[in-house]
Amino acid sequence: MGRIFKNIRRTNLVVSQRPNSSVTESFRAVRTNFQFFSGGGEKQVLLLTSTTSGEGKTFCAINLASAFALNGHKTVILEFDLRRPKIHQDFGSSNMIGISSYLIDKAIVDDIIMPTQIENLDLISAGPAAPNPAELIASEKRPS
């Protein structure tokens, strides 16, 4: 899909805070390539994952989502790191309620969607730490 330049800033919010940077331009290129190769359907899902920590999942998720949102696409980041959530910190959001809350029936979907300071971009944080994240994710819970 493309290459992302190394982030030398202390912030993960590069696309929204430095719109003319080479890093931002690389995320725009990846966004455009994804749209082209996926056929540009109206509703799309993109999963970012890796096998180890420190490979840039958070950085890429935040900035690729921002690139889509700033291009007018309604975008939601779902933070599924139920052990060490941190995406919410970059947006200054709370992690008191989120995916784990929903999966144990302590919240409904509308309760866990949080707007961010970026237009068209919402966040669903991981929520409170759970002792059994794999089991929660594998549960039969479906959106109502």
Explain what the structure shows.
The protein is mainly α and 144 residues long. The chain folds into 2 domains: 66 residues, no CATH class; 70 residues, no CATH class. It has 7 helices and 3 strands, in the order αααβαααββα. The protein has a 3-stranded mixed sheet with strand order 1-3-2. Helix 2 crosses helix 3. The model has no long low-confidence stretch (mean pLDDT 88).
Main-sheet strand order equals: 1-3-2
N-to-C SSE string, H for helix and E for strand: HHHEHHHEEH
Radius of gyration over all CA atoms, rounded: 15 Å
Give a count of the beta strands, DSSP E runs of length 2 or more. 3
Mean pLDDT across residues: 88
Structural class: mainly alpha
Strand content: 5-15%
Uncertain regions: pLDDT < 50 for 5+ in a row? none
Number of domains: 2
Task: Tell me the helix content.
Answer: 25-40%
Number of helices: 7
Shape: globular
Kindly report how far apart the N and C termini lie: 34 Å
Give the biggest beta sheet: 3 strands, mixed
